[in-house]
Amino acid sequence: MTHSNAMAIQAEEDTEFVRFWNEVLAPKFIRFRHILVGGLTRHSAAVFPDLPVHSGDRVLDVGCGFGDTALQLARKVGPNGHVTGVDCCDAFLAEAQKEAAAAGAGNIDFLRADAEKLLPRGEYDFVFARFGTMFFANPVAGLRNMREALRPGGRMVHIVWRNRADNPWLSMARDVVLDFLPQPGDDAQTCGPGPFSMANEDTVLAMMKSAGYTDIEFRRVDAPVLVGRDVEDAIAFQLAIGPAGEVFREAGELAEQRRPEIEAAMAKAIRAETTGDDGIIMPSSSWVITARNPVDAGEIVEQGEWK
Ligand SMILES: C[S@@+](CC[C@H](N)C(=O)[O-])C[C@H]1O[C@@H](n2cnc3c(N)ncnc32)[C@H](O)[C@@H]1O
Fold first, then answer.
1. Which candidate, 187, 188, 185, 124, places its Cα nearest to that of 156?
2. Collapsed DSSP state (helix, strand, coil) of residue 188
3. Bridge partners of 218?
4. pLDDT class for 298, splitting at 50, 70, 90?
5. Whole-model pTM?
6. Domains of the chain, start order
7. Ligand 1: centre distance to CA 64 (Å)
8. At how many degrees (to 10) do helices 253-271 and 168-178 cross?
9. Mean of the per-residue pLDDT values of the chain
């Protein structure tokens, strides 16, 4: 296991999902950083001005990836506040540290941790996660750790994808690839439950309540995302990352044999999409979920959801 210079807290060995992020996904995410950061930013930009984050706050950014939201939060809390970006992937943390150093941010640090297992406890005013919590294999454990990182009364916001139908930027490519390749088997290597695991409002509400949160609210955000600078970039992105990438990767040799047909079909589908200033744009939709750590256990008991 290669560690970045980030501090690390770890209870046990890496899980298979954490290894998958480090060994398989990290190089692909770095290659397509221009799409990922640019696209995901539109969903957090819709809520950033209203986040309950104040000058002097202590903030945790869980699954911080390349660290761009951690840096934005560090600007919000100012020199008297502090932000800790947490991720389980060494390569992302190394990039995040470089960004923070280049920005001269003195109020930010990074921690290597698996949020499902262990997070710092009870210190933070605000916990944030953009498109990170959907990958928790045990979501209630991860969400509970995030809550226990908060001081009593502290707030959390996490952003997750809504359903497949409203996220054609991920689902369309998978449908195209499945015209040529089989569904991944139950033993497929993955990064965890995947992008749509928190799409269902009722399920996530139950998870949040079980993790001990109160004042849970959902806000829908629709935003266009860039899927590639051009058709070629978009095809490469889709075959590397996300649900289509998983089908392609798992099909191994067969995928390579059928690559020309798949790429032709994908090119046809992508050409039907809108082209904007930066490249090809597709619709996407997320939930911005806000919640609070109760001030005392009585608040939770009233809800009758405490486990
Ligand atoms: C889709 S990326 C989003 C990254 C970043 N928040 C952003 O919006 O650009 C998901 C991130 O969650 C991290 N992650 C996944 N499971 C994790 C876990 N159990 N503990 C900590 N980080 C995790 C991944 O390494 C990855 O950086």
1. 124
2. coil
3. 289
4. low
5. 0.90
6. 7-163+188-224+286-303 (3.40.50.150)
7. 6
8. 130
9. 89
